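User: Thanks for the earlier help. One more: G-protein coupled receptors family 1 profile domain-containing protein. Can you show the sequence and predicted structure together?

Assistant: Of course, both are below.
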Amino acid sequence: MEVNDTFNGTSSPNCGLDPHDFLEVKFILISIIGTLIGCFGIFGNISTAIILTRPSMRNPNNLFLTALAVFDTCLLVTAFFIYGMEYIIEYTAAFDLYVAWLTYLRFAFAISHISQTGSVYITVTVTIERYLAVCYPRRNKRYCTSHGSAITILGVTCFAIIFNCTKFFELEVIRNPECGDGVSWQSYVLMPSKLAQNPVYGQMYALWLTNIVMVFLPFLTLLILNSIIAYTIKKSLNKLSGESISGRNELKEKSREATLVLITIVFIFLICNFWGFVLTLLEQIMDNELLMVQYHMFYTFSREAINLLAIVNSSINFVIYLIFGKDFRKELVIVYGCGTFGLTIRLPAQDKFQYWRQFSRRRLSRNMSPRITNSPIFANGMRFLRKSSDSITKTSNSNSIHAPPSPGNSICCDHIVLNGHANHVKANYGHGERVTGYLTPDYKPQSPRTSIEEDRQSMQSLILI
């Protein structure tokens, strides 16, 4: 991400405000559109961190994604206070805000680069973890643990800080002797430091080392490892040609999702980082003054595009998780209490998954009902169930004892729990106890199933019948 040369001491001899060219366009593009995208990204990253730290979602891979959300959030916050605030200051001519901006700019600039480095290399570590999980599952179980993930995240954080520690010394604010009153816009001037102006530092670190570490190495790693992952899953599909259709369809879905994730990650990373490398290379090859004079509009909007693409890159992960993560979408329903017809918001947290599975099961049963109900096996089974139900009803009516409930033990049904059984209800007893089970003469409390895999297997057995 680039910092604009907002004020320099020679551009305004009258010590007044010297705004950027195309200020209105930049204000709309960065301060308004970029801020709106950043706010959405901050909301998405915070939601991602909340969802991935829930007990049902905790695993080493999601720990990496949580760290990625934290780095992206820091990057979006610093992007607003650096780039969005810059054009707000010029557009509103707020001098006090300008002084405050100069005060924290050097630190925010370094933190933004630290966050960007951490975000890039957390993405790389997630890809490596997925590669081990697909290609070497035994090694993945041995090495990719929660403790190992925490150590890796700590190592990435330390690397990001060490690699960008010189960013704290690349900018400096100097006092302009021509406007020494301290109350005019040009009294304080933002300038590159002597370290940033050093040709060896600019050629070795700012150009080659930064672009190798931040662009070439992570991009090639993502491309190669994700290609291997997609190829491995496709190869597994070819080996399972004689297995059941359901298992093959599941692997096909995984292959399709892995391919889409590969295309999405590589494409977004390429678009959001490639142009920054090109512009940096042009700044080193060509004279900076030549770019600013002869190609002024191209150079100006290229720098703004780099900043905006960095904001988009840090805000898009939440959308990717929503598109490809089924469990992520289910957890999002639980966290925010939203769902089909808004019904899940009134259910306890432990029952919302059951409602979600029951709703999917009912929708599947409606699609399967014409094929099942027209079969002779279904017709014979229904006749048998009717005969059994009539005999049970007669027996229960002859042996039942009707008595009014006592005031102390009155039963008040709260609401039906949709967990796949039509007679499964929740009842409130007078003494504040809540019992969950089947209302049958030989009642025994049943613990609700929480395994999605069990529900899937039971549905597959139903379909096969």
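User: Great, one quick takeaway?

Assistant: The longest strand covers residues 171-175.
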